[in-house]
Amino acid sequence: MHVGTNHWALLVINIKEKEFHMYDSLRNKDRRDIPQYVEELRRYMKGKHIDTENQSLRYPDPCPQQGLGDDCAIFTCKYMECLARKDTQGFLFSQDDMPTV
């Protein structure tokens, strides 16, 4: 998802666990826009008759963080790759890996 004006992060809707999982390489839990996006998704899902009652927003750990730079889109793609492979026991990448990803 596009966050703010120049940042990408991954929001996963985990229906089974009744949670929204936010993977953000510039983790800032104080951002006001993330909960607003989640609330918009809840309304949309409710309109599609998908139960969103008691679904919480969670920031799973570990979640590799970027250094100074603009690698957020690459981090977001790597989060998706690891989750698709069900390789969440360790996101085995870091900022140091970005030049070769």
How does the SSE layout of this entry go?
Elements: E1 2-3, E2 7-8, E3 10-14, E4 19-23, H1 33-47, E5 56-58, H2 72-84
Parallel strand pairs: 4-5
Antiparallel strand pairs: 1-2, 3-4
Quick description:
This protein has 101 residues and is α+β, with helices and mostly antiparallel strands. The chain has 2 helices and 5 strands. A hairpin with a 3-residue loop joins strand 1 and strand 2.
- Helix share bin: 25-40%
Strand content: 15-25%
Number of beta-strand segments: 5
Low-confidence stretches: none
Mean pLDDT: 88
Family: Belongs to the peptidase C48 family.
Domain Ubiquitin-like protease family profile: 1-83
GO cellular component, one term: nucleus
Keywords: Hydrolase, Protease, Thiol protease
Give a description of the structure.
It is a single chain. The chain is α+β, with helices and mostly antiparallel strands and 101 residues long. The protein has a single domain, classed as Adenoviral Proteinase, Chain A (Adenoviral Proteinase, Chain). The chain contains 2 helices and 5 strands. The strands form 2 sheets. It has a 3-stranded mixed beta sheet, covered by helices on one side. The chain has a two-stranded antiparallel sheet with strand order 1-2. A hairpin with a 3-residue loop joins strand 1 (2-3) and strand 2. It is globular, with a radius of gyration of 14 Å.
